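Table S2 (continued). Query chain:
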Amino acid sequence: MPRWRISRTSNLFHKVIGDFKPGYCYGTVKTHKPGNPLRPIIAQVTTPTYHVAKKLNQLLTTYVPTGRSVSSATEFINLLRTAPPCHDIASLDAESLFTNVPVDETINVILDRVYRSDLPALNIPEYILKAILETYTKEAPFLSHRGELFKQVDGVAMGSPLGVLFANMYMAQVEKKVFNDHPPPELYARYIDDVFITTSSDEDANSLLTAFQNNSCLTFTCEQSEQKRLPFLDIDITKDENGFKTKVYTNVGRCLNARGECPPAYKRSVAAAYINRALTHCSSWTETHHELERIR
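Corresponding output:
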């Protein structure tokens, strides 16, 4: 993107100045999945688009509809505490959401939210914002592990500052289409690509899954509860006659080694995060005590 297009249009962005390199691809191991597959990530910190994309993400996040989404496990737990009675619980998951987000369609959704909604529009002409979004998603080259140069022309790369923005914008649009024709569950909460629902019958979750797949280009999976128990995010949820019981969910049990070669600040932050999670996620002092003993 030529720098004059951004700098002359508004004062929202800094000039792109400095030495840059293409992004690079690497993988992180999914320790919770059978066979431990790799999650491909494209690091873009070294690219000229990275900092402008971060600023753009900051500006556009305020336009993401938030009525059906949650931003943290704590916010989700607060919803559970006030949830109405239900028959059962289930979760839906959008498979490989980031890399399957339709970029052009989502850019149009973003432009409609910015320029054709009740919210104040950005101080950027629409055609320039569209060009920036297209450039920073479809024209960001990266190196493979073999040193080959690629561009991801559709879908949003994990590692892009715009990844979560595009995923949330697209999912919000899909939800709007689905709930225009399908009655929403009593409790519906989405964290990016993971959806938690309460159901009034055994068929509710599968009916909603079908509606989501019919109104999107995504593939969804459904996980039903086992004996009214279901993990969601890092929370172990159990439904009983009085509502919901919650505790910390762990499926691997691995943690940073306290004797390992790692900065002390990292070790302190891990310990603090575990303690905070025990205090916020557990619905009883018995479970809180059990979790604190486990991580001691």
